[in-house]
Design a protein that fits this description.
Layout lengths: L5 H14 L9 H6 L3 H24 L3 H6 L5 H4 L6 H20 L14 H11 L4 H13 L3 H11 L7 H18 L4 H11 L4 H15 L1
Helix pairs in contact: 1-3, 3-6, 8-9, 8-10, 9-10, 10-11, 10-12
């Protein structure tokens, strides 16, 4: 869950920049590695202020949260150089967008989130009972989405109706592949997503473990 106050982050960066310490030690080793200097934080602050304005403009325009993420917001100053800021900016960007969006939009969102209370069983009923999605169609669609790099959409589809096909080896294999791809996508920028996707991918059957190993080898190659 995204937490904290954006202005509080800016104020904290100001304190560090003013004191300009020789070393920065954070509460987690990856943070120490990525947020390593006061000068880098000073530039990062400028980029985050730019992101803040872009998000608020999008919110006033009525954009959905997903549309703001999909805009791939990159500040012009970041493109002009300073490669040591790239990774820290990408690590923070998603959470800053989510936090600002929640603070400025509220409970009821443009895509009806907060207004309707549909669960996975409802979505499975829509897809399987009303639209007639079969096991073969589900697997074929998930594989096509994965081939196009639409891993989150594939995962969403699986979460919506995979429970209707419990025990299906083909659905289980498609699920493991999608979550393995998502693990690879977020392993360097979001350890929490990596952990969750890793749990989603996990299987306890010998055949499933062999399939996971094969997929990992294929991914590594």
């Amino acid at each position: 869950m995204e937490e904290g106050d954006f202005q509080g982050l800016m104020d904290a960066i100001d304190v560090v920049v003013e004191k300009h310490p020789q070393y920065l030690l954070h509460g987690h080793e990856p943070l120490t590695r990525n947020f390593a200097s006061a000068s880098m934080l000073a530039q990062l602050r400028t980029d985050l202020v730019w992101l803040h304005e872009q998000v608020l403009t999008a919110v006033r325009r009525g954009d959905e949260r997903a549309a703001i993420h999909q805009a791939n917001l990159i500040p012009p100053s970041l493109l002009a150089g300073q490669p040591d800021v790239y990774q820290p900016y990408l690590i923070l960007r998603e959470h800053v967008i989510d936090r600002l969006y929640d603070q400025n939009v509220g409970y009821w969102q443009p895509d009806l989130q907060g207004l309707e209370h549909l669960n996975r069983a409802d979505r499975a009923e829509l897809l399987v009972d009303y639209l007639g999605v079969s096991e073969k169609q589900l697997v074929r669609t998930v594989e096509r989405l994965a081939a196009d790099g639409n891993y989150e959409l594939a995962a969403s589809l699986l979460e919506s109706c995979a429970s209707r096909f419990e025990g299906s080896p083909s659905v289980a294999n498609a699920k493991r592949l999608v979550y393995l791809k998502l693990m690879a996508e977020y392993q360097n920028t979001n350890p929490f997503k990596f952990i969750i996707y890793s749990e989603k991918r996990r299987t306890n059957t010998p055949d499933g473990q062999r399939q996971v190993m094969k997929q990992e080898l294929d991914l590594g190659s």
